[in-house]
């Protein structure tokens, strides 16, 4: 199947480790083509033992599209604007990405995907989980699929902005939103992946507020069911970080969750995002 890289699946649901490719420096086109295939096949891919700088991450990500600057995130002096620094310090109360989500779906055009590199890890803990949203859609009943067909949902960043403890990452009030930094967007509840043509469930607990045209109270029971269903253990994989690990996930067809299980320790990650297309 693959002749330029080796691919080792991580679970029966999604995720694969990719060997035989170095993200530091230029990559042969044939290797990039196979990485793109593995990305579409497994939704999230992982690299081990990499010595990739932040600029290497950016160069790798650009093989998949332009980089996206996420407006509500704090910029760090001396770093390029597309770099997101996720720094959970020993005294930070809440980890960034603490519940299941797709990245920044409060934007009209959420990212295609993100490349995340470990820079400093706790001795144990701090794994990241991923959930396959094609599977989440495919396993709904035909009646539920028909009911959700054409339904849209309102997504916002208000829950994140309310979490002051992730203040190290977010810069409330900065960017394109309202005065208080709140932004919202409306997306289809089921989206079709532009490359694979497959349908994926596209709601997440961190950002989705309600169905368009419905109240919060009317929306909540079904949304709660969809959150629970979309992250069933059999749809997931769990990635254990090591120094030099890099993850690259497809934001259009998987959700993820950063486990908050290393109190009193520091975990420092660097991330770049690739610009996506409007969900349809
Ligand atoms: C995120 O992008 O949500 C953070 C993931 C992580 O730090 O593991």
UniProtKB/TrEMBL annotation:
Keyword hit for Magnesium: no
Domain TauD/TfdA-like residues, every copy: 6-272
GO cellular component: cytoplasm
A Pfam family it matches: TauD
Record keywords: Dioxygenase, Iron, Metal-binding, Oxidoreductase
GO biological process terms on file: sulfur compound metabolic process
Top-level taxon of origin: Bacteria
GO molecular function term, any single one: metal ion binding
Family as reported in the entry's similarity comment: Belongs to the TfdA dioxygenase family.
Protein name: TauD/TfdA-like domain-containing protein
Species in which this protein is naturally found: Bordetella genomosp. 8
